[in-house]
Structures are given as C-alpha cells and as structure tokens.
Amino acid sequence: MEKMVNVYLFGKRYQVPESLTIMKAMEYAGYQLVRGCGCRNGFCGACATIYRIHGQQELKTCLACQTKVEEGMYVATLPFFPLVKQVYDIEKIKPTQQIMMQLYPEIYSCIGCNACTKSCTQELNVMQYIAYAQRGEYEKCAEESFDCVMCGVCSSRCPAGISHPQVAVLARRLTGKYLAPQSQHLIDRVNEIDAGSCEAAIEAIMQKPLDEIKELYNHRDIEK
Amino acid sequence: MYQYTDEQLESMKKVEASRQERFGKTLARMSAEEKEQVLASFHPDYIDSAYEELKVGPNKGGKVLHELADLLQGRSRVLDMEIDLSNPDYDVDVLVIGGGGAGSSAAIEAHERGANVMIVTKLRLGDANTAMAEGGIQAADKPNDSPAQHYLDAFGGGHFKNKPELLYKLVTKAPEAILWLNKLGVMFDKEEDGTMVTTHGGGTSRKRMHACRDYSGSEIMRTLRDEVFNRKITVVDFTSAIELIKDTEGKAAGAVLMNMETKEILVARAKTVVIATGGAGRLHYQGFPTSNHYGATADGLVLGYRAGAKLLYPETLQYHPTGAAEPTQIYGALVTEKVRSLGAQLVNKDGEAFMNPLETRDVTASSIIRECKERGNGIKTTDGEGVWLDTPLIEMIGGEGTIEKRIPAMLRMFGKYGIDIRKEPILVYPTLHYQNGGLDIASDGMTSVENLYVAGEAVGGIHGTNRLMGNSLLDIIVFGRNAGQSAGEKYKTVEVKELTLSHVQSFQKELEDAGIASNMPSPRLLPDYRRKDN
Fold first, then answer.
1. Could you list the residue range(s) of the whole structural domain that residue A35 is in?
2. Helix or strand or coil: residue B78?
3. Out of B205, B230, B329, whose CB is closest to A88?
4. In terms of DSSP bridges, do strands A12-17 and B379-380 run parallel, antiparallel, or are they unpaired?
5. Using an 8 Å Cβ cutoff, are B456 and B98 in contact?
6. H-run or E-run covering A198
7. Quick one: closest CA in B to A21, which residue?
8. How many domains does chain B have?
9. A–B: how many Cβ contacts below 8 A?
C-alpha cells in the first residue's frame, strides 16, 4: 500500500498517495478539471498554484502538474490572473526604449522587492529581465525571459502591478523581428520559390513511378 | 527526488561503462526490408485486435481504433437538447474552432483579408499541442537543401502515402512560413551572421530543423497568441464546439457551442468554418500514455465526420519513441527528438546501443518495443519498462553546456526529480504522440463539405502514415495560414441559407439502422482522470 499524505485542496482535507503531483491529487480526490489544467507537462502555464506547508511561514508557488504533494500542503490554484496586455502593431513599433515606456510604464514603478523572481515557477530571474526592459535592453530581456510559460504567478506577487510575462513577450518579439540578424539564406530561398525556380525538381519526383521514387529515397545521400 | 531501483542502478553502471566506447560511433541505418519487418511485427498500428470496422458514415467499412469508433459512432450531444437556430448568439464570416497554432494562424490570415473572425476554444487560447512541441520546425532553406529534397524525405518517411498535392504545398511554403514567423517576432536559434542553426531530425537527409531552443512550439504559440490579441480577434474561450451547423443547402454554416463551465448552449452562424481542433492522444489508444495536451480528444474529427467529411488514414497513429518512462510523475511526457539529434544514443539494459537513433519515429518506436518485448533487453520501470537514452553523450559531443543551451526544458523536467541529464542517462518508452490521419482536404484546405475547412493535426494525408519530426509545427503554420487565406476569401461570396442540424438526425438514423444504440456522449471534449473507485 502506497504511503498517503494529507493535502488541503482549497482548505479541505484529502488523503492522497504521496507520489502524485498536485494536479493528479486533485483528480484523485474527485475533481474533473476544466480550468487550471493544460498541457500537463510544464509548458503552458495553465496550472499556476500557491501553497503553504502546515507550520511554515513561507507561501510557495509552483505549477500543479510539475510538483509533488507533501504532507500538510494547503493548496490554492490560480487558474487565471488579470495580466495587462497592451495592444500594438508589431509592424509599426520600433525597438526603442520609448516603446516600453509607452506601453508598460508601470515597470518603472518596480521597487526591487524581488518577489517576482522568488515566485517564478520556472526559476527565472524575473526582476533582472524587468530591469533590462526598463533600460531598453531587449535582447537581454528576451534571453533572460525565454523559458517563461506565462503562468502569471510573478504578477500576482508584484506590489507595483507589473505584468511581467507580457513585457517579456514584447521584448522577445522586438528581438526576434528587429534586433536579431536577418537570415539571408532564408530570404533567398523564399525568393527562389516565388520566382518558380524550385518547382521543376519536385515535379520531376512527383511524376516518377512509385518504384523509382522508392529507389531515390532509399539511396538518397544523408548530410553528415 | 527519484529513487532508482537496484536493477536500474546496476544497468546504469553498464551504460556508463560502455559510454567511452560508444562515443563517436554511428550505428548503420536499417535497410528498407529490416524497417518493414520491425514495423509489421512491433508497431502498434499493426495490432488487428485494436481495430474495428466503422458501420456508418463516409468511411463506412474502414477500420479505426476502438476508442475512435466509439466516438465517431457515439451519441451527439445536441440530440437531447432544444436548440433555437433562428437567433444566433454570434454571426461571423470565419469561425475557427480550436485555439492552437493552426487555429491562430488561420484566424490571423483571415483577419488580414478583412474577415470578421471568431476563435472558439474549449480551454484557453494557446492551450494546445503546439505549445508543447519542443524539437523544431522543418524548412529547406539552406543552400545544400531544396524543397524537392524535403519532399523526398517526408514522402519516404510517410511510407509514400502522403497526398502529393498537400505535401507539395507543405514543402514549398515552408521557407515562407519560417519567414512569416520570424517577421512576427519568433526568436529562432541563429548564428551571429543570421544563419539559422539547423539540425537533423529522424528521417531527414539534410539538417533543416529550425528551433527556438527546446521551447520551439511555446515560442511560436505565445507569439501567435499575442498577434491574435493585437488584432483584437474575438476569442471565446472555455467554450467547445459540440456540433457543426449546416444550412439548408448542406454547406457548413456555423456550430453549436457549449460553455465548458456553465454548460450554456450558444449558436454561432458563420459563412465559413475552420476546424483546427488538433489530435487525439487523450483518447489513450491501446492504453498508451500520451505526450499530448489535455484537450486532445479528436473532437474535430467527430464533428466533421457527422457532417459528411471523409477521414484519411485515421487508423495510423504516431507513437513517439521517447516518452519519459521514469519517474512515474512524468510517465509518457515527451522527451524531444532533439535529444537524439544532438547525439544521445538508445541503449539497452546491458549498455549496448541497439539502433541508429535517427531512424524515423515509427521505426525507432517499434525497435524500442522489440528490444523490450522480444529480446528482453528492457529495464523495468514503475509503469512498465523502458530503455536508456544516453544524454551525457551530448555534452561529450557538443561540449560542456550544450544541454543547458539547447535543451533547457529537458534539463528542467528531469531536474525537478533530482535527475541531472548531463550526468545520468534517462529511461524512455514510446508514448502516443500524433494523429497521422484526419479529415481529408483539398489543397485549398476545404473538405468535401462546402465551406468547411480543416487545418493542423485534424487534417489527414499531409504526412502519409508517419510524420517526420518538425513537419507538424510546419504543417500547422502552412495549412493554418492556407485555410485562413482560403476561408478569408471564400466568405465574400457566401450567402448562408436557413440553419439546420438535420444532418445530425440523419446520422443518428443511420446509426439506429445499423443497430448501434450508443449512449456515449460525443465528442469527448475532455478526458476523465478522476479516481474510478470513488
């Protein structure tokens, strides 16, 4: 018999096997999840969760699909958090410091408490990427925030009301579109295709009898 | 923290002992005959007892897995409802069902053409397999590569069953898809001079896998979602489509919607409809675990089928060779193929590399199953068995830091259980990953039902009977855009007649005539993981 632990889902006690994640513990207890459950693999940020272990002061945060239950765990899920998402035209904005000031001026109200970093479910240095955003250093902000799953926990802990994940998306899009170097070979290939110079080679394959295509496939050279 | 069993520890020592010897060695690829043999003997698609014949509908007489048959021939949720179609709650030009990469791409392109677009999604926008795709996206954009070479790789990988006109579109529109994403701000891995960092995937003959570290799909999805919001496209979330609506001329003309929380029923009228509902991993075919998203329950296939659209290759599924086999908390979770692209080998319990790790996915999965089931060379795990994926080789090949730089999500996923994949190999076993088949479309994205389009994993035929790594992220962009472009033009000439659900009643009559009296609500919408002995 597997060892059971006591968890308190929204304050109510359930006994669940200790090997379960918080998400699976909720299902074990009888919840049919609709909110607060997405990819179940730590990529989508749907299952942001706040918990406290009985007898401890610290309020902890995690993704419910990635975290095992513990004895005396008090759990509250945070399936939605009202982040502020500003609307902009990616074709018209430019990667200047002003754009951040214009769209997300609240980042300059950061008081440096570091609650965002402490709460990040991906262990990112959130306060640092906000600092980069303040200075218009978008490539650094993009780099530092790259693994963000936009669960919103950081924003829930922020006394300045910053929507960190949205700031990071903006910084990454500016970086991807304007700051990272262009890929000339990609542009060239698109132009070649548009000019019709790639069609003949494919059509030549398509018109062959199946046996010849198989022959071609089975003996194609493979780049080392 | 994960505790290895004694047997696992002993086997791991053998893997460590043989590592230096295996380093730098490449095992020969299998011949065409060897591949056919391992597939026929060990691939789950070849297990006859898992299949049954469909009794009604456009694929009557064809075979599908029991779990899908139950839904295709299940009971429509609208049969027991009074629904007033005369006063729709929404009236739009293009209705997109599904909020993943394909649906978002379709919505953006239709919006670009001036359409009034609405996305309806049963969870949140972006809750989709797209966000979970780690490895990358293919496109032949390097000088030593060509769309023709890409075509050949995908055609052979798909066992020459791919629909040629769809595959042609996939490979010729691939570079443009990458450029489109890049212009939206997706951060691809690049060299300092802008050259895309590209690697091999299983079955590729050129290095054409583009990536955004191992958050490729996540980076693409969050960018597309941001763009959908910037365009102020209507997104109705936590709302599922439970049936398509047609007009009296038999054309697709909207959908019956259900709020997932309040169960409120709503009616959407639309001039064109795009199904972009994704895959079916959460049906757990043949009891396999899955790497798929919570909502992957084949809803679009069911809706389309009842409306008269044909399925192509619904019997073929992709079992990703490397699902996590331990620890049990992440059983079935995807271990990206990129791990093998970067040099990790597949190793049995005696520390022997038993195959070239870059065969196509179906061959690799079958070969792992053979190693365990026939040869008895697997390692026992909590939920079954598995083989080693020798990740420390990656650091030996690419240098220290390669894992953190190139596959940070993997490092994190195992790190949470105290497993450092830079130093220890990991245990893997095939996991249900992808629906190769789906609704049959023409190259403009339309099914045989007028004004009904499909994009993404819900489409069948693009990948034949086996998809290559990196062609799915590509397909959702290429065919998502394609469907949005087509629907975004077509609606301009559409005049919707009176709405009707008569096709649902006719289908039910067919079921009854065939002696099928199912009570299973269909579509499934979500899996049920509640403890059964409650």
1. 4-77
2. coil
3. B230
4. unpaired
5. yes
6. none
7. B329
8. 2
9. 214
Minimal-distance CA residue of chain A relative to B262 = A34
ipTM at complex level: 0.97
Q: How confident is the model at residue B484 (pLDDT cuts 50, 70, 90)?
A: very high
Residue B217 at interface with chain A, using a CB cutoff of 8 Å? yes
Shortest distance between the Cα of A94 and any Cα of chain B, in A, equals 12
Same domain, B453 and B492: yes
Q: Is B340 a catalytic residue?
A: yes
3-state secondary structure of A95: coil
Tokens of B88: 């729709």
Tally of residues, chain B: 534
CATH of the domain at B104: 3.50.50.60
Contact check, Cβ <8 Å, B147/A122? no
What pLDDT, in 10s, does the model give residues B64-120? Answer: 999 999 999 999 999 989 999 999 999 999 999 999 999 999 999 999 999 999 999
What are the pLDDT digits (tens) for B336-391? 988 999 999 999 999 999 999 999 889 999 999 999 999 999 999 988 899 999 99
CB contact under 8 A, B175 and A19: no
State how far residue B269 is from chain A, nearest Cα, in angstroms: 26
B45 and B317 Cβ atoms separated by less than 8 Å: yes
Rounded to two decimals, the pTM is 0.95
Looking at residue A53, which CATH number applies to its domain? 3.10.20.740
- Indicate the residue among B432, B461, B481 that finishes a domain: B432
Euclidean distance between CA atoms B130 and B105, whole angstroms: 12
Q: Pick the catalytic residue from B320, B361, B463, B481.
A: B320
**Closest CA in chain A for residue B202:** A222
Active-site position among B208, B306, B340, B467: B340
